[in-house]
């Protein structure tokens, strides 16, 4: 399965609680923190919900 590198690039200050929870569920903790996730439908849906807060790149193999 394809891997994605997800980085939090916008602050969560003033964001709705559901967006904060989605970012936390992706494994992101603070600004410029990156995590590797599989490109599963669930993860892609979470990324779509907070796409204005994160940067997504294909991971190097």
Write the SSE topology.
Blueprint: E1 3-8, H1 17-25, E2 34-38, H2 41-49, E3 54-58
Antiparallel strand pairs: 1-2, 1-3
Please provide a written account of the structure.
This protein has two helices and three strands, in the order βαβαβ. The longest helix is centred in the middle third of the chain and has 9 residues, at 17-25. It has helices at 17-25, 41-49; strands spanning 3-8, 34-38, 54-58. Helices cover 30% and strands 26% of the residues. It is globular and about 35 Å long. By secondary structure, the chain is α+β, with helices and mostly antiparallel strands. A three-stranded antiparallel β-sheet has the order 2-1-3, with no helix packed on it.
Outline of the structure:
Helix content is 30%, strand content 26%.
Summary tags:
2 helices, 3-stranded antiparallel sheet, about 25% strand, 3 strands, alpha+beta, about 60 residues
The N- to C-terminal Cα distance equals 11 Å
- The parts where pLDDT drops under 50 for at least 5 residues are none
Helical run tally: 2
Q: Roughly how many Å is the radius of gyration? A: 11 Å
Q: What percent strand?
A: 25-35%
Largest sheet: 3 strands, antiparallel
